[in-house]
Amino acid sequence: xxxxxxxxxxxxxxxxxxxxxxxxxxxxxxxxxxxxxxxxxxxxxxxxxxxxxxxxxxxxxxxxxxxxxxx
Length: 71
Ligand code: FES
Prior knowledge:
By secondary structure, the chain is mostly helical. It has helices at 11-19, 25-32, 42-55, and strands at residues 2-4, 9-10.
């Protein structure tokens, strides 16, 4: 299924990019061109990338861990 029509980026291309080390949307975008034209694909592309990262055992790109200390 095409995720980004403008740049002809499909799910397979996103999963391949993740398997080759892409772990955030900026890198995905610069590598594939995804989201660089009309931008309407960004939300879906992030979801596909996050799913691929999850399946690869990597943390989601939009989740930042923060240390909290009590007392
Ligand atoms: S659909 Fe991806 S930039 Fe237009």
